[in-house]
Amino acid sequence: xxxxxxxxxxxxxxxxxxxxxxxxxxxxxxxxxxxxxxxxxxxxxxxxxxxxxxxxxxxxxxxxxxxxxxxxxxxxxxxxxxxxxxxxxxxxxxxxxxxxxxxxxxxxxxxxxxxxxxxxxxxxxxxxxxxxxxxxxxxxxxxxxxxxxxxxxxxxxxxxxxxxxxxxxxxxxxxxxxxxxxxxxxxxxxxxxxxxxxxxxxxxxxxxxxxxxxxxxxxxxxxxxxxxxxxxxxxxxxxxxxxxxxxxxxxxxxxxxxxxxxxxxxxxxxxxxxxxxxxxxxxxxxxxxxxxxxxxxxxxxxxxxxxxxxxxxxxxxxxxxxxxxxxxxxxxxxxxxxxxxxxxxxxxxxxxxxxxxxxxxxxxxxxxxxxxxxxxxxxxxxxxxxxxxxxxxxxxxxxxxxxxxxxxxxxxxxxxxxxxxxxxxxxxxxxxxxxxx
Length: 437
Fold this sequence. Notes:
Elements: E1 22-25, H1 33-46, E2 53-59, H2 67-78, E3 84-90, H3 99-106, H4 113-116, E4 121-124, E5 133-139, H5 141-147, E6 157-162, H6 163-166, E7 170-176, E8 179-180, E9 184-185, H7 199-212, H8 214-217, H9 225-234, E10 240-248, E11 255-261, H10 263-277, E12 279-282, E13 286-292, H11 300-303, H12 305-308, E14 314-324, H13 336-340, H14 345-349, H15 352-355, H16 360-370, E15 373-376, E16 380-383, E17 386-391, H17 395-400, E18 404-405, H18 413-418, E19 422-425, E20 432-435
Parallel strand pairs: 2-3, 2-7, 3-4, 7-10, 12-20, 13-14, 13-19, 14-17, 17-18
Antiparallel strand pairs: 1-11, 5-6, 8-9, 10-11, 15-16
Helix pairs in contact: 1-2, 7-9, 7-16
C-alpha cells in the first residue's frame, strides 16, 4: 500500500463518452417540469424494457433530487411495457428510510404507494441483512492494483450486490451528480457501488479515496482510481445497465440538465456540467467557515460534507464550524467511529498495524472529516485546520472523538455573516468551494 497517488484518466472498463448520451439542458439552464417529463418519456421510449423486469436504483434522502417528478414520468412510460418494476433505495450503509420518509421522498401518500405506482415494489437497500446480497465474483489483486494505480497491491475484493439488481433484466440508475470526496464526482455506476453493494467493496473503495485524500479527490474530473474500481465492479452486473443522470440546482428540485444512456456515458455528460455548476471559486482563503447543515443530514456521518466541501477555502490554522443543532449522533450505522475518533490519513498509515483490522470505510470517513495533516511518533498528530461541531451532540462525546465543541445556542448566524473573516454557507453539503489558485 502506498501513501498517496492521483489518477484522472486511463482507468476502468469504459470511461464514458458524453456525446453518446441523450441530453437536455446545460450550464445555467433551469428545466421546467414539463421539459423533464418529456425527456424522461423520450429516454425510456428508447430503452428495451418491453416484457422485461426493471429495477430502478434511486438515491436516499441525503441527495437533492426531484424524484416524485422523475418517477411519475417513469411510471407513465413503463406502464404496460415492463413486466415488473422494483425500486431500490441506494442507501449504501446509511440507515433505512421509514414509510413517511419514503412517501415524501418518492411522491406518494403514506401507505398508498400502490395507488401512485401500481404494481411497483419499493425497497430499502437493507445492507444489514445477508439475504439482501448475491455475489457477482471477485476482483483479484493484480487487477485491483491496475485499477487503483498501485495504491493497493496485495488485496482482492469480493463483489456483492443487492439481489434485486442482479436478478433484473434492466437496471436503471436515477440520480444526481455532485462533486464527491471519494470518487471525484458522484452518480452513474456509483449508485450500484457503493449504493447497493456489499460492505467489502464499500470499505475498500472508500479507503482508496482516503489514501489519495478527499482534498485531492473531490471534484477531480475524469476516471479517478475509485471511479475505475466502481466501473469494473459494475461491468460484472448481469442486467443491462442504463442511467438517468441529473444536474440539480443545489438545494432545490430544479434541474439544470439530465442525460440518459449507459451509466458511463450519462455520468460523463452530467459530470462535465456539474464541474461548472457545483464548484464555486474564491480569490483568497478565509479564516473561518460556518457550514449550516440542512435537516436531511441526520448524523455527522452524512453531515461531514459540510467540512470537506468547504475546507479547501480555509487558510492554514483556520476553522470549519459545522452548525447543525438537530444532529444528536456521530453515526447511526457506524458505531466504530465513536471509538476511532477523527484523524488525518497519516495518523492511520503511521500506525497501520493498530488499525488495519478495523472497517476501512470507517477509517476513510474519519479522515474525510479531519482533513489534511501529518503524524509522527515524536510530534504526534498535526492537522491543517480545526473542526468544530455546533450540534446537539454532547460536549464530552465531541471532544472524545478529537473534535472541538461549540454550544449551538451560542451561534449567531447573522454575526458570523457580518464577520469579514468568516464565510457562511447557508445550505452546506452540495457545492464544493475552491481557491482560484
